[in-house]
Specification:
Elements: H1 14-29, H2 34-46, H3 54-60, H4 69-77, H5 90-96, H6 101-112, H7 119-136, H8 145-150, H9 154-164, H10 180-192, H11 197-206, H12 211-226, H13 233-236, E1 240-242, E2 250-252, H14 255-267
Antiparallel strand pairs: 1-2
Helix pairs in contact: 1-2, 1-5, 1-14, 3-4, 5-6, 5-7, 5-14, 6-7, 7-12, 9-10, 10-11, 10-12, 11-12
The structure holds magnesium ion.
Magnesium ion binds near residues 14, 15, 51, 212 and 213.
């Protein structure tokens, strides 16, 4: 982020903020404590972050309890397949990767459902988790797309198969990339058409629209494929993550990467409080 619209260079947006809140909950609770994640999200949303998805904001500020807020929003609005659960997928994907496909996709669905009542958002987030899991296992996530589609709820396979097909182009999107399908399709295409972390993230940003989110969604599997050493230092050096709702906390420099390392360490069974998902 070069800095504009009231942001400093390197200042993280809502995508990273929500990912950090998820990572910290998973690490501190040692399990998927959904009410705890929801409480952290709500505390953040109530303090007026510089950006927040419309749907995420509506759910988190509704006053409804953690286990019904998103469902109530979906029942009322019917359109709730935003990309807001995709963008925060990396920490839980790292955390559950070693447990295999079903636990990883299950965790994705449960965490996604905190803010996104539309099953399409849950299934898309499950796809992204699985692609990250495959990449972390050292395999090519793009070759895992067919098996991943087969693990989706049958009613959602066709639409994801369309946007994840090798020939799909964002110009063919039927919605703005703030929606889950073109966002995921664009991110996977960015990975498919490039050969480095930097190129993948640049390709995602170059598509326009919800650039921070498409880049976050592309960056998570790209980082899993190319490794932390592939992330340019001129990008990580100015990075800082303010956390509204949590005092004056700002994560700087390598702290976000440290969270990822601790998540992977915990997932490997080397940390405290590891539980079966
Ligand atoms: Mg954003």
């Amino acid at each position: 982020m070069c800095g504009d619209g009231g942001r400093d260079p390197g200042e993280a947006t809502d995508d990273t903020q929500m990912a950090v809140l998820t990572a910290e909950s998973l690490l501190e609770r040692g399990e998927t404590d959904l009410p705890d994640v929801f409480r952290r999200f709500r505390r953040w949303a109530a303090d007026g972050p510089k950006d927040i998805g419309l749907q995420t904001e509506a759910v988190l500020t509704s006053g409804a309890p953690w286990d019904t807020a998103a469902a109530l929003h979906f029942r009322t609005n019917r359109r709730a397949a935003g990309n807001g659960a995709l963008m925060r997928a990396a920490p839980s994907a790292v955390r559950f990767a070693r447990h295999g496909r079903a636990p990883t996709m299950g965790a994705a669905r449960r965490l996604s459902a905190l803010t996104h009542g539309d099953p399409a958002a849950r299934e898309g987030t499950a796809v992204l988790h699985e692609l990250i899991r495959v990449a972390l296992s050292g395999e090519d996530p793009l070759t895992a797309v067919p098996d991943t589609l087969a693990a989706l709820h049958p009613g959602h396979r066709a639409r994801y198969a369309t946007v994840l097909a090798p020939g799909w182009h964002p110009d063919r999107a039927t919605e703005f990339n703030g929606a889950v399908w073109p966002c995921l399709g664009s991110a996977v295409r960015a990975l498919r058409t490039t050969t480095s972390y930097e190129e993948a993230v640049r390709a995602a940003i170059g598509l326009g629209g919800a650039t921070d989110t498409v880049a976050a969604v592309a960056g998570a599997p790209a980082g899993s494929v190319y490794g932390i050493g592939a992330i340019p230092e001129r990008w990580t050096q100015p990075l800082h993550v303010p956390l509204p709702g949590f005092g004056d906390r700002v994560l700087r420099a390598r702290e976000p990467a440290g969270l990822a390392e601790r998540s992977a360490w915990t997932a490997a069974g080397c940390g405290q409080g590891v539980t079966t998902p």
